[in-house]
Fold this protein.
Amino acid sequence: MGAKVIRDKTPTASGPVFSPDGRANAVYLNELFDAVARETSARLFRRYRADVPLTGGLWGGSWYFADEQGYTRSRFRRLYSLVCVPQNRGLEDSANLKLMFQYYSKVLAEAFEPYGVALGEANGGDIIPYSNRRRPTLDFQMWDANKKIDYVRSFFTYNSAEWEEAYLYETVRHIKQAKEALDSRAMAEPPRLDGTAIRFQLQDTVIIYCTLEPALSEQAKAVAGPLVERIKTRFAQGIHDEDEMRALNLEAFKSGVIYGYEDAIRDDFAGEGLDITRVEEWPVERINRVPDSLKAKLIPPLKAIFKKFRDNLKAAKARE
């Protein structure tokens, strides 16, 4: 009898992740990131009998800047993934954690290779700000040697969950991070942000608003909604002027949009004894867990966005 052959699979999506002009598709990229996570799990099990059921999906809210089929309206050079990791005691061993990252990096590179993306240099294990102190979210990043994109960055968060719930949990941290530049109750003026930093800050203002819109008060919508639409319009038109971007951020700062975002989720979490301003201190079993009351408001609209993209992709394919 010959040695058993281990047959690995190259992760794929149900359609092309990039358009001919290099724009990423939210549906297919979401599928690809999940396929990468699951294939990493499969390889760890086949080789080591290690039971590490990873799942993945998009992070960052790029789908809020997409067209009707889910393609970003401009090229996004930085791609973000959210990976759910089981609270496995074996991963408390740094050697095992390093092994998981090694396999993930290999699978991720294989998945993007057909698109002319050469993911090589990697860095993993850095702690993401405002994540759980006992089991912090960990950062993993790979750079594209071909320069088609800048990099793929993945956030490894410790608790199994459906993608939508994990995304909403991470939004609590996202709000706290965005507040660093928007807390008008603690600062007389926002910090001066330049280049990529000010662009990301405006994107965060839009992404958090769009994620929480079904739960926002009418007052919060009246304050933030028009500004968010202006930011989205200028991004679609190709905004580059940093002074203009800082002026838009100053409006967000002065109008207190961040407090409307906090108000939209505070009571739901408080009802379960959780303070959104102290997410780092929550029990580890609450990682990737969102109150049912909030899931009922926010998950159906999130699912509906991707259903719309899929329906429109299917209709476009039928017309070909």
Remarks:
- Residues 139 and 155 are 5 Å apart (CA to CA).
- The first helix runs from residue 26 to 48.
